[in-house]
Sequence to fold (242 residues):
Amino acid sequence: MNWRDFLNEKVKIKEVIKVNDSAIEEEIRKCFVLQFLKDVVLARLLDDSGLNCISTMIQNKESRILDFMQNDEYFLKELFALYGDDDYNDDEKNSEKCQKKIDGIKLINQFVLISKTQQPFQRTEFYKALITKGLMSMIKFSTREKEIESRILVTEVIVTIIEHEPGDAATDNNDDKDKYNDTDVPIANLKPTTPTPPSSTSDNKGKRALETEEKADSDAHGGMTGLHDGIGNSDKKKKMST
Fold:
């Protein structure tokens, strides 16, 4: 079986949420084919220029796919709506429904990792879209999921978003803060605190105290020098009179 037969017969693209755009569906298929050519078929044949050319083509197609995901009115909302209910016991009974949720986690993880190859401003806009359209519901589901793989994938998503401009994501997340209870911390707000530097007033007080102490030491040293000089002059007068 050659690679064309393999792509036609063995490779099936799974749709968690239906993509209502034939052009984007074609971009997804072409992106996979290019990645397959780069990593498998032509891995030992490509020179640097050919490798860079294919990598650029893949990156451009991935950029268009990410733009579709964040700008489409329904795609992300329908995806995160899968996690909107809190009946997790029902998910255990309905294995097909639960598997669809797990596939959704894999989908978001895959595209968050893909976004790391894009420009910083594109990543920021994509992460904002994820947060504002319901990423927290997926995170809450993963905390109750028994499969370790799902928790690992969601953790990877959280870490990637936090590492990239957490302050920017927090701006759009503030509008939804009332949706979460006291135990739910928006991921965009999980950033290290910076210690407050000492105030200039306390610095000035410390400097004045140090200057006063140095001046007192200087005066005491000067007084001792004068005392020694006086004793020395007195001894000289006694010798001369003798």
